Each structure stands twice: as structure tokens, then as C-alpha cells.
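User: Can you recover a sequence for this backbone? Please restate the input before giving your answer.

Assistant: Of course. Working from this structure:
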């Protein structure tokens, strides 16, 4: 993809690299950032020149709208290096489209493809040493946009900053998690911003999740806000249930984030002959499935952890422990998806794009 000449990216490289001080074997997720970042400012109704600069703190006006009214959106994606040292993105078009959908919902300007996609490509290329090869290694990419306009006036900002920062990541097995099914709190509501990747969707989850943590559960499974009877997402991941040999997951809606991992797993499962049902899954079905043994697995799906198996859930103060599986479908699907992402298996879907 060639850049639009109006968006020629200005590059100022770091004089030294901090890569030598990074322990790539022991990387806490999302805590170490590469040498460079990209930013592009929007004002007077248009996007300016994108700039790649050394990663550094930045000055902001204390009255910037993002601090007061939460106009902030983001994306989460990964880059992978193959055995030939080529670097690949996984379905970047999906993240780009979703980013602009989030932007529209938060009354923010859409970001041009030349800035988002070409910006990612150039930034990754400059920091390509930070992408390690081998299964489970990746570079986590965090494009985001904040309202930088001055003044505590409760209306959309006239100025924004789009940025990309990147963090080397290693997949680690964080163990199975115990989850609490939400009976009161909600992550999203009809007409709300649940389908947007908005910062506020995360801050509003912290308190209910903290309460769940205090009771010994690592995550909350969100239910629909109106009736709390339908299972919607697991923390910040989409959620799948295996009932006998059928994989079930909630259909995307205004309350559910349209995950790239979710849709990719559905396609892989269907290709391999697994029946997939995208339909509302009821809490009552889980309880029933525990009683008659038809509920086999529950797992979360999202870019950061790919798949997060769930060991058991609590509902109305009763804890239900899932039966242990010899060959969990969750791990089989994770293996298949990560092999495509890491270019270790043929990408028959055409999902991977070389940088
Ligand atoms: C980002 C996110 C997901 C996962 O989306 P992916 O594209 O698979 O990373 C799921 N649910 C919520 C609420 C999210 O914010």
C-alpha cells in the first residue's frame, strides 16, 4: 500500500535504542514500549502531518476534553515475525474499520487509512527489531485517539490526537480463571457504547471486577443489562460456550464488541466441521448444562490472550466447576489461530498481510 502524498510521514529517529535493556523472556504484558511512537493531530477540520518520534511523555493542557469527558477510543492488534524475518499483520482492515466506527460513536473524526495503516507499517518497520519470531511472540500494537481540545465545555472537542504505541508481548499461559456471572452490574446497554472500543467501557468495568476479585473470581461474565439472563462477554473478551459438540456465542449487537478473534475462531471452527451457533446463550442453559453434563467448556477470546479458558463460574452464590477435558476445543482452536498468525500454518483465509 503506498502512502497518499498528503500524508507523507515525518520521521525523527531515536539516537539510541533501549532494546538492549529489555528482557524479552520476562515481559509483563503492555508495560514496555518500543523506541518510537506515531502521532497525528486533527484541527480546523483536518488531519495534519503524521509524525514518528522517539517514544516519550507529552505535554497536554489540563483542560483537554479527554480528561473531563472521556472522548477516547483505542484498538488492540498484533504484528508477528516469521522464520524469514518478514513481519505480518493479522486482519488489520478489521481493526481499522472498527476504529472508525468507534470514532463515529464518540463524535470523533474518522482517521484516514493512510494514517492508520501506513502509519502502522512505517512505525513497525522502524522498530522491527522489537518483533521477535517464534510461537507466542508478537508486537502488541495500540492505536488510540484522544480529545485534545482545550476547555471544560461539555461538547465534542475540535482537536484530537491519533497515536500508535507498541509493546513487545509474549503469550504466557495465565491459567484457568474462575468467573462471576453479573446479576446487577452491566458492561453495556442498548443504545450505549458497548460496541465501540471506548476507554470508558473499561473504566466502568473496574469496580464490578474488583468486587469479583475480592470474592475470589478473576473476571466477570457480563449479562444483558435488561434481564441479566443472557451471557454476553467475559471481562474484556468475547465469550464462547461448548455445549456437547456445539460452540455457542452471543450474536454481535449494540452491547457486544465485534471481536476479530471471535469472528476468526468462528470461521476456523466452521471450516473444521464444528457446529457454531451465534445466538443468545442463557444463564439457565449453563445451569442446566452443568446438571445434565452437556456444558463442556467456556472460554474468552480476544487479541491479547487469544483464548482464556474458564474453569468454573459462580451464579447466585453457587459455584459450578466445569468438567476437565482431555482435549479442550479451546486449546485446539487457539493452536490453529496462532499458527496462522505466526505464519506456521497456511493462511487459507487470506487474513495475514505482510508489512
Ligand atoms: C477488544 C475487545 C474484545 C476482543 O476483540 P478482538 O478484536 O478479538 O481483540 C472483546 N470484547 C471487548 C469488550 C473488547 O473491548
Amino acid at each position: 500500500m503506498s502512502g497518499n502524498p498528503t500524508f507523507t510521514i515525518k520521521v525523527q529517529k531515536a539516537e539510541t535504542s533501549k532494546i538492549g535493556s529489555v528482557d524479552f523472556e520476562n515481559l509483563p504484558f503492555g508495560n514496555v514500549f518500543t523506541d518510537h511512537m506515531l502521532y497525528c493531530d486533527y484541527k480546523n477540520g483536518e488531519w495534519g502531518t503524521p509524525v514518528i518520534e522517539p517514544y516519550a511523555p507529552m505535554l497536554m493542557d489540563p483542560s483537554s476534553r479527554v480528561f473531563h469527558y472521556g472522548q477516547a477510543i483505542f484498538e488492540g492488534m498484533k504484528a508477528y515475525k516469521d522464520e524469514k524475518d518478514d513481519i505480518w499483520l493479522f486482519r488489520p482492515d478489521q481493526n481499522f474499520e472498527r476504529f472508525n466506527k468507534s470514532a463515529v460513536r464518540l463524535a470523533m473524526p474518522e482517521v484516514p487509512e493512510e494514517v492508520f495503516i501506513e502509519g502502522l507499517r512505517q512505525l513497525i518497520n522502524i522498530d522491527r527489531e522489537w518483533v521477535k519470531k517464534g510461537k507466542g511472540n508478537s508486537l502488541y500494537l495500540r492505536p488510540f485517539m484522544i480529545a485534545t481540545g482545550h476547555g471544560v465545555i461539555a461538547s465534542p472537542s475540535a482537536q484530537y490526537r491519533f497515536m500508535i504505541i507498541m509493546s513487545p508481548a509474549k503469550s504466557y499461559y495465565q491459567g484457568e480463571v474462575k468467573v462471576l456471572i453479573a446479576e446487577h452490574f452491566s458492561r453495556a446497554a442498548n443504545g450505549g457504547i458497548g460496541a465501540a472500543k471506548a476507554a470508558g467501557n473499561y473504566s466502568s468495568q473496574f469496580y464490578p471486577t474488583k468486587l469479583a476479585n475480592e470474592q475470589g473470581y478473576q473476571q466477570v461474565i457480563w449479562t444483558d443489562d435488561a434481564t441479566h439472563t443472557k451471557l454476553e462477554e467475559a471481562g474484556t473478551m468475547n465469550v464462547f460456550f461448548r455445549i456437547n459438540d456445539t460452540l455457542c456465542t452471543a450474536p454481535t449487537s449494540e452491547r457486544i464488541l465485534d471481536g476479530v478473534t471471535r469472528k476468526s475462531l468462528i470461521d476456523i471452527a466452521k471450516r473444521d466441521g464444528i457446529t457454531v451457533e451465534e445466538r443468545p446463550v442463557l444463564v439457565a442453559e449453563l445451569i442446566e448444562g452443568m446438571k445434565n453434563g452437556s456444558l463442556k467448556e467456556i472460554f474468552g477470546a480476544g487479541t491479547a490472550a487469544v483464548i482464556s479458558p474458564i474453569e468454573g463460574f459462580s451464579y447466585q452464590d453457587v459455584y459450578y466447576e466445569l468438567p476437565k477435558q482431555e482435549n479442550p476445543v479451546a486449546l485446539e482452536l487457539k493452536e490453529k489461530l496462532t499458527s496462522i498468525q505466526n505464519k506456521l500454518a497456511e493462511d487459507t483465509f487470506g487474513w495475514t498481510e505482510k508489512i
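That completes the design. The two ends are 9 Å apart (CA to CA).
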